[in-house]
Prior knowledge:
mainly alpha
Amino acid sequence: MGSYVEMRNNLADVIRVSFVTLSLILVTLFLLNIDTLHNPIDLLKNFFIGYERTRNAIGFMHPNASGNTALAAIMISAFYNCKNTKMRTRVLVYLADVIFMYVILESASRTSLIAVMIFVLIRAYIFILMKIKGTFPRIMLTIILGLTSLLLLDLSMDIFLLTNRAGNFYYNIPILKSNNALWTGLAYIGSGEFMSTSYGTFFVDNYLLYTLMSTGILGLIFNIIFMISLSIKVFKIANNSSSMYKTVALILIVNIIMSMTETCFMYPSFSSSYIFTVLYLSVFAKKTTKRRKNVNYCE
């Protein structure tokens, strides 16, 4: 699929169709399932209550699915934030992003919220870096980014402990050993199904852990090699190409970070995985070109 998209040179069409499709789904479910608008501040406070927090899936099978889908729509909407996009289109996209952000708040998906913050932070950093001149201002901007990233990392660790994500490893890996499945894994099933099997496994809310539990050390090694190879090629292409490919690279970064607390990297239970996989493989299939000088981030 990725080779076909690249061969036909219609990555922009895939992006447009994906955004319109996600927008129609999210807006329709939002209108059908949201009867009362809550204060965003109250919704933010709700994020830190723990397992007792109130969550709204707005029609999806799980609140994490609604949050993940809204996050995907927000990240894909970044492709429209360019000078050559009509103002009317940009305004509509911004209004849609407001709805998508509210869906994330209603879902109380902490992974999606942090991912949005990381995505916006990196985009703002790249945009400002392209605008300012001089070494000192760039150094100060990088320091600010670093400090902000540390605050987000601290928040991520608090959420990691609050949701007992560490218990995923603590309970599950010994089960692999007791079943003599450390090298080959237990079974290639949905991550949610591990809780309902006879193995006695716990939640598997980490993509690498899910790969380990499903396919063992052999599958994990193969998957890590694939992720590294994919990242190298995508970043290499993005460094030499237009903003469209740079945005794909940014989405890949956020997606990998997200997959540490959700099994959402090239995983079919998330609709975003289908779209992102096509984007990644389309860039992966692209031939490397010579570096272009003075490439505008939003050209």
